[in-house]
Amino acid sequence: MDTLTSRCFEGRGYTHDGMNKAACFIQDRFKEMGLQPLAGKQYQQSFSYPVNTFPGRASLFINGVQLVAGRDFIPSPESAGVKGAGKLVQKDATHFIDLQNRIVVDVQKKLTWSVAPQAADYTVIQVDSVSFSKVGKPETIEIDLENKLVSRFKAANVCAMVKGSVYPDSVILLTAHYDHLGGLGTEAYFPGANDNASGVALLLSLAQYYSKHPQPYSIGFICFAGEEAGLLGSNYYTQHPLLPLKQIRFLLNMDMVGTGEDGITVVNATEFPDAFASLQQLNKDKKYLADVKSRGKAANSDHYPFSEKGVPAFFMYTLGGIRAYHDVFDVASTLPMQEFSDLGGLIKDFFAYLQSGAAAN
């Protein structure tokens, strides 16, 4: 967790080579564990997509008061870069406009960032409401924001497996996205501890376990890129599978698993009721988690492109604890990880059930 969220990886995103550094780190861990590539000789499955980035200057003054990128303000992800000074005109309680520079200031109670595949011809600056209240009546704005539209950002899914001892062509797949939002300017970055360094940490922990304890079925591991940009890595994989999708007996995707005091939610539970009932029973028998809650079909993480292609899949996320999300406060030091071992134990038991001959339906 500390490594994946460190300054070295710059939020595993689109500035300072952060995503590529993270991919190489994960690949090296797979190699150290003795895992083989999922197919062929390469661990990385490369693809590309457009993304609007903010790699350089990111300064903002309102009424001469300097605001801090990431904590006090963020640009909307599609914003154009802009440099200039102007006057703010109030449009309503939360919106102020600098017409000359095509800037909209949008006051928000929580700053939540994302990723955009294009750059607009305007700039929207979201400002934290508490920070905004300290500048007085907003009248002037000075901004220096650099953006760069990268038409073909290079990314890669990182894929590995432990070959099955009896049924090597039947695969149980464990997945988690490793990308996050990257950096804003030269100082701010989004660590993405819960989202989703937590899922990658658990995946690597289980990869280490299975490297020492091969199973009758092959156990595959995929760390996806481009999830925050719209499930791009998992969509790419399902369109260019390294192994035939029909060989995947079950897929378990983990995203935001760093808490757990209130248990977990399982997306697609209603789609595969027998598998979900078994998961609940395994949890009850071992008393791993406070609750295993059911949720229906949802396109909210990397399981979705697979289940749309007919692959049985669950998506697990933990409940309770901190609520930092897509902001600079999602850091490793405040993420409790109190159910990390218990969730890992439940997953091991569930994988054993999947290999016992019981069909997931």
UniProtKB/TrEMBL annotation:
A molecular function GO annotation: metalloexopeptidase activity
Gene3D superfamilies listed in its UniProt record: Zn peptidases
Annotated InterPro entries: M28_fam, Peptidase_M28
Domain Peptidase M28 per the UniProt entry, residue ranges: 157-341
Recorded coiled-coil stretches: none
Biological process according to GO: proteolysis
PANTHER family documented for this protein: METALLOPEPTIDASE M28 FAMILY MEMBER (PTHR12147), PEPTIDASE M28 DOMAIN-CONTAINING PROTEIN (PTHR12147:SF26)
The protein's name: M28 family peptidase
Protein's organism: Filimonas effusa
